[in-house]
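FAQ: What does the model actually see?

It sees only this:
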Amino acid sequence: MVWLKRAFWSLGVVVAVAAVAWFVWPRPVPVDLATATLGPMEVTIDDEARTNLRHVYTVTAPVTGTVLRIASPDGAPGEMSVHVGDRVIAGETVVAVLQPMPPPLIDVRSRQELEAAATAADAAVQLAEAEVMRMAATLQLARDNLTRAEKLSSTDVGSAKSLEVARTDVAVNEAGLASAKAQLEVRRSEVNAARARLDPASATAPGDPDCCIKLRAPASGVVLAISQESEGIVQAGTPLLKIGDPTDLEIVADLLSTDAVKVKSGAAVMIDGWGGAPLKGTVVRVEPNGFVKISALGIEEMRVRTVIDLVDPPQDWSTLGNDFRVIVHISLWDTASALTVPVAALFRQGDDWAVFALRDGRARTAVVELGHRNERVAEVLSGLVAADEVILHPNDRVADGVAVAQREVQ
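And it is asked to produce this:
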């Protein structure tokens, strides 16, 4: 029985030592691995951008007046029925109608003054009519005198001077009568003006073809926006609606000035993030003037306007409109064959770049020489070969010579 107890205790000691050894034995550090690959690489500038119609036409009120409702809810005949998105034809489609402004309301005092003015105008008409009658009678007398002077002159009884005076009187009185008649017309016009100021009726009826100004589309395209939908009084120069051609589209990116200096006209652009398939574009112009723009974090940034043309046919991006958000990737450099590793594997070792490469199950520091890089990968000029595995996001447990193993994905 003694030997049995000793064997039992010996077995327990062995198990305990094995358990301690298992717990203290160093295990491989779980890591994420990536492979250095040989393939195409491109360096791009990525930024948000927006679509922009090259030519937008704003229809404004040419004079002060009452604009009729542009977007009629029922589209009744005789009413404007232009809505956002409707297609218009240059010089044909009526997009707005302006009526004269209605007369202002008259207060009691103003009405009394206008009534007094109308009464005075009526009296002036009566005075002018009496003047016309007086001048007519005077003219008739002058003509009778002229007739008698002509008879006396024909019998050598009257003098030539008397005949000349009679003719002059007729001419003077004819001119006076014409002046009196003209004055009568002026007074009658003043009466009409005074009565018109008292008339509470509105301006000329809309059914009158001469009452209104019809504004037609200045260019063919679609209605982009309606600034003044409802009927109302507008001042001269007030914007009413905007028209543009949706196929005449470009893309505008406000790049950081430090990025814009690297972009050249003609650079290839890939456009995505707009809800459809990626599109191709070309940089047309990098404007020479910068401006300050406040970022989402409240930081002042110097930005430069960069204009991009779409290369793909319009049917590929027909659903894009004005001021739509897109993402642009402007190409700065590309190659068909480059050895690349993810930038997440890089770290600094002094003044050099380095990675942890997997060698026989252990992490080995490899100093690398880098070429071009973008946000995802970096070009490796020396220090690695294709198919080498490198550790991504190495933590403080990873060091040169430490055993590592691929992390198991749950």
